[in-house]
Amino acid sequence: MTNRPNGPLYVGTTTSLARRAWEHREGVADSFTKRYGLRRLVYAERHEDILAAKQREMNMKHWPSAWKVRLILQHNPQWDDLYDRLS
Fold first, then answer.
1. Is 25 within 8 Å of 39 (Cβ atoms)?
2. Where are the domains of the chain?
């Protein structure tokens, strides 16, 4: 989640991406995303195993921002909000 290209980034794990993205967009919980107004879903990965997803999250949180930006640019070069594409 972010609020603009090259802006602050939030990395997290959930079992329901649509629900969690909605919560971030609506600011229903006090969190990093609410504090910084991060409402745009620009990248997501699907994992069959929640433990693998959590490990990926922990790894990505330790990455330099430039690595995360590069990953987003590879998959979403326009930084489009992917929320409406969730099914």
1. yes
2. 17-85
Judged by phi (left if over 0) then psi (alpha if -120 to 50, else beta), residue 85 lies in alpha
Can you spell out the DSSP letters for 9-39? ------S-HHHHHHHHHHT-S-SHHHHHT--
pTM for this entry = 0.91
pLDDT digits (tens, 9 = 90+) for 59-69: 999 999 999 99
If you count them, how many residues does the chain have?
87
Reading the block at residue 87, the tokens are 């099914």
pLDDT in tens, 23-41: 999 999 778 999 999 999 9
